Each structure stands twice: as C-alpha cells, then as structure tokens.
Amino acid sequence: MKSYEIIGLMSGTSMDGLDIAHVRFEVNKNGEWNFLVINSETTEYQTEFIEQLSNSTKLTVPDFLKLDKKIGSTFGEMTLNFIDKYNINKSDIDAISSHGQTTFHQPENGFTSQIGCGSTISFITGIPVINDFRTKDVIAGGQGAPLVPIGDLLLFKNQAKSFLNLGGIANISFLQNNEMIAFDICPANLPLNKLVNNLGFDYDKNGDISRKGNVNQELLSKLNNLDYYKQNHPKSLGTEWLEAIFNPLINFKTDIENTLRTIIEHEALQIASILNQNKLESVLISGGGTKNSFLIERLKYYFKGEIIIPENKIIEFKEAIIFAFLGALYLEKQTNTISSVTGAFRNVVGGVYHIPN
After folding, report:
1. Residues 6+ apart with CB under 8 A from 205
2. Are 214 and 140 in the same domain?
3. How far is the CA of 276 from the CAs of 87, 172, 232, 282, 303, in angstroms?
C-alpha cells in the first residue's frame, strides 16, 4: 500500500482565512483510497490582507504580480507556523497542495487565475508545492471547476448520494448513470456576508438576523429568474458574475433583515430544486454555510430527503482535504479532474509542481 502525506491549503471566495489540513492518503493495489486528517486549522486573515484580496481584480499588472508574490509569501509563512505548531517533520511531507486565491475566472475566454505564487511557498517552506490545478482543464475546454467532485467520488462516495458545499458559492456533486455530475448551484455565503458586514458583523451567526426578516417576494422572483438557473451543466459561478448580475438586484445598505431572509429563501429553493429534480435521496453538507442553522432549516423545508451533517473537521476542512488529495493524485500521475463535471474534452492531471531549490 502506497501512502502520501500532503498539506492542503484552501482559500475560498469568502476570503476569511486559510484552511490548512495535514492529511495522510493511502492507496491499495486495487486503486482504492482512504485518508486520515492528522492536523487541521484555519488561520484568519488580517483586515488589510482581506482588502487586498478583495481589490485584486482592480490592480495594475505590476501590482497584481506583486500581490501574487505577497500571497505566496503569506501562505508560506502560515504553513511554516502550522508545521511548527504541530511539530510536523518536514521530511515526512511529500508536498504542499495549494488552491490559491481565485481572482479572474473566465473559462469562456480560455483562462482562470488562482494567485499565491507556488515557487514562493515552496522556497519559504522548503517543501515541494503543487498548485494551479484549474488551468490545464480550461486548456482542455473545461470550466476548470469544480474540482472537489473527484474527492467526493473517491473518498466520500459511501457516505451520501450527493455532496453540497456551502462556501462563498453553493456547489453540488453526485453520480448520475455512473457518471459524476457537478456544478455551482447559486451564491451562498458571499451575498449574506456582504449584507451583515454593513451591520458590523463578519457573518450572520446561525442565521439569527435572517430569521427576523420577511421574504421580499418581488426580489425573490427576480433572483429565481436569473438566466444562470436555466442553463444546463457544466457551469460555474465566479465573483465577476455576482458583481455584474446578482448584486445589482440587491440593496446592501437598507432593509437588511428582509434582504437576508429573501436571499436565504432563494438559496434554499435553488438547492432543493436541484436535489429534488435529480431524485437524490441524501446530501452531505460541508462548508461554513452548514453552520447557518436557518439556511439548513429552510433547505429541510423544501428537500424531503436525508440531510447529513458530518463531523466538524469535515464541515470546515473538506475542501482543504480534497485539494490535498488532488496533490496526491498528481504525484500518482492519476487524473484529478473529471471531464463530465467540467465540460473538458478529456480528463487531465492538473497542477504545476514547484521544487524548493
């Protein structure tokens, strides 16, 4: 049985911190994988760093390149602190597998960008780094997203019939006619957090503020009728879509309780619609939105199947675990994208390998 120890780094669209997971993967002679999470934690970003990430798409090319190196340096230092804190022997680590921070995601134009320089992370930590997992899939005609379904298929498939991640954006994966299907459903935490930021909160804990509001039926109708929801998969969402299409429908300054309540209803409706249409009997939910108990309540109202809430380690670190897994697959020279999910004309082994010397 072959094994790998990988440190997975995940920085999502919510931009609240870096999820770090130290994971051991084992693959047997039949190609079956299992994993053990050895250490995991989230390192929160400083406010100034969050602002830099948020403004990354507005920078000049030189400033954008400087930020790429700065993010790499920051991720490298955070990873070193993690290694020191948990007394990890660096020689035991086969690679650091980094998602990076998505800035420009425009597969229709042939590119996607996740900044956070892999060479810088590798040089600082002294450990090989694998990053830039999406680009090759885009070159092959795919969306470059989602990539997590390969982990759902190979690591979690016995736990549920479908897998929902509630991060900045809600995405789902499931098997249909022995083929893996996955796509972004709708926004999740991003518009909710943006609204409560105006009230001085980082997020709506347990959905308590949303729960106080009333549904604005006119706004709900506008949101539910967005063209994206009529498109067939494969499809994916990025912050560009939110800024251009979703957010202009919303007043982020006034009537915040009712607007939050309406967006919660919108998200629950869209997610349940996908689950019900595809006759999925159960769904395992992960990501920060899992802790929004009001959103889960509304989802349970519309979806009559089984909702599975896993242990906290999986809720918080599933994406970091799976990006670590993408690194293990890369080292095994195994496919780590699924063309039926991304729309590429073939599966590819995505990633770029950086050595520290």
Report:
1. 291
2. no
3. 46, 13, 16, 10, 7
- Name beta bridge partners: 112: 105
Does 140 lie in the same domain as 8?
yes
Sheet holding 33-44, edge to edge: 33-44, 17-27, 2-10, 95-98, 129-131, 352-354
Domain interval for residue 108: 2-144+317-354
Return d(Cα 22, Cα 127) in angstroms, integer: 13
113: nearest Cα among 94, 131, 89: 131
State how beta strands 95-98 and 129-131 pair.
parallel
Local confidence pLDDT in tens for the 357 residues of the chain: 899 999 999 998 777 899 999 999 999 989 899 999 999 999 999 989 999 998 898 999 999 999 999 999 999 999 999 999 999 999 999 999 999 999 888 888 999 999 999 999 999 999 999 999 999 999 999 989 889 999 999 999 899 999 999 999 999 999 998 889 999 999 999 999 999 999 999 899 999 999 999 999 999 999 999 999 999 988 888 888 999 999 999 999 899 999 999 999 999 999 999 999 999 999 999 999 999 999 999 999 999 899 999 999 999 999 999 999 999 999 999 999 999 889 999 999 999 999 998
CATH code of the domain covering residue 304: 3.30.420.40
Quick check: pTM over 0.90? no
Residues 322, 333 contacting (CB under 8 angstroms): no
Q: How many residues does the chain have?
A: 357
User: What's the rounded Cα separation, in Å, for the pair 185 and 179?
Assistant: 18
Q: CB under 8 Å to 32, separation ≥6 — which residues? A: none
- Which has the closest alpha carbon to 191: 260, 268, 292? 260
Residue type, 229: Y
Helices (H), 55-174: 61-85, 118-125, 135-139, 149-155
Instruction: Give SS3 for 99.
Output: coil
Domains held by the chain: number: 2
Among residues 157, 186, 156, the alpha carbon closest in space to that of 169 is found at 186
Look at residue 141 and give its three-state secondary structure.
Answer: coil
